[in-house]
Design goal:
By secondary structure, the protein is an all-alpha fold. The protein contains six helices and no strands. The chain has helices at 22-37, 42-52, 57-72, 74-84, 91-106, 111-121. Helix 1 (22-37) packs across helix 5, helix 4 (74-84) packs across helix 5 and helix 5 runs antiparallel to helix 6 (111-121). The protein is globular and about 40 Å long.
């Protein structure tokens, strides 16, 4: 058996995400979803995000929209992921996939872009 090449750490990204990209908004929203799943209220997580990030108004609006929608559809998103995957992915990836699923349901005409940007964010 050939040895597997070493994997890059999950936090390493060869090309940083563009600040105004969909990938960046998906990643930021997934991070906030992770905070909520860990016990922080959405109100507090969004307040911390707004206070600590230099995101534009448009980026903040997208992140807020993604978070509210993902959490509103959280049960269905979790169910769909459980049906699509043999085993649950690590939480940061699961959070990202939940946000992406929400976005895909709301904007199916943009599926190619959403998938591309989700892969970029991952």
């Amino acid at each position: 058996m050939k040895p597997r090449p070493p994997q890059r750490p999950a936090h390493h990204h060869a090309n940083p995400l563009a600040e105004e990209s969909l990938a960046k908004a998906l990643l930021l929203a997934a991070s906030i979803i992770g905070e909520v799943r860990a016990g922080t209220t959405l109100t507090q997580a969004l307040a911390d995000f707004n206070a600590s990030r230099s995101a534009s108004a448009a980026q903040r609006g997208a992140v807020h929209d993604f978070c509210y929608g993902t959490l509103r559809d959280f049960g269905r998103g979790g169910f769909l992921l459980s049906r699509l995957m043999d085993r649950p992915p690590p939480e940061p990836i699961e959070d990202l996939l939940l946000v992406a699923l929400h976005r895909l349901e709301r904007r199916p005409e943009d599926a190619h872009t959403i998938v591309d940007q989700t892969v970029e964010a991952a």
